[in-house]
Amino acid sequence: MAFAKTATVLGAKTSYRLHSDAKRYTLKDNGFTETNGGNYQLIRPLDATPQSKTGLKLKITVSKDLQTLKMSITTANGLKAVNIFKDDKQKMCQDKFYFLMDSMISRGLFEKISDK
After folding, report:
1. 21 phi and psi angles, rounded to 5 deg
2. Domain boundaries, the chain
3. Nearest CA to 85 among 116, 109, 114, 60?
4. Strands 57-62 and 69-74: what pairing?
5. What is the mean pLDDT of the segment spanning 94-115?
6. What mean pLDDT, rounded, does the chain reach?
7. Model confidence over 3-45: pLDDT tens digits?
8. Looking at the record's lineage, which domain of life comes first (predicted)?
9. Alpha-carbon gap, residue 71 to 67, rounded angstroms
10. Confidence band (pLDDT; 50, 70, 90) for 1?
């Protein structure tokens, strides 16, 4: 998956882009860690409950120049992208995804740009 100005996860109807005011320290303050390549990465579990063992994770990577990003929802090992929007069995994961994204929007990290 390549970096792009806008990004979304597999199956989602909403796309996101970095907010023009997003800074390195803002990313770090919100849980992003710097990778060996200088990019910033955030990984958050999307399990419905702590006892749930689905192991789905939201993975967001922002380029080191803070111009582009990529995001996906992956399996526990991070090797396969997962579409949580294909059925209502994943409703809790969908809600958690939107909750996490809305909280990052309110902190000035991202902007919601489209609903398909």
Report:
1. -95, 0
2. 6-113
3. 116
4. antiparallel
5. 91
6. 90
7. 999 999 999 999 999 999 999 999 999 999 999 999 999 999 9
8. Bacteria
9. 14
10. low
Residue-wise DSSP of 51-88: T-----EEEEEE-TTSS-EEEEEE-TTS-SB--TTSSG
Give the CATH number of domain 6-113; options: 3.30.1820.10, 3.20.20.330, 3.40.190.10, 3.100.10.20.
3.30.1820.10
Angle at 113 between CA 80 and CA 66, to 5 degrees: 70
Residue 41, token pair as written in the block: 């990465």
Distance between CA atoms of residues 4 and 67, nearest Å? 8
Q: Is the pTM of this model over 0.85?
A: yes
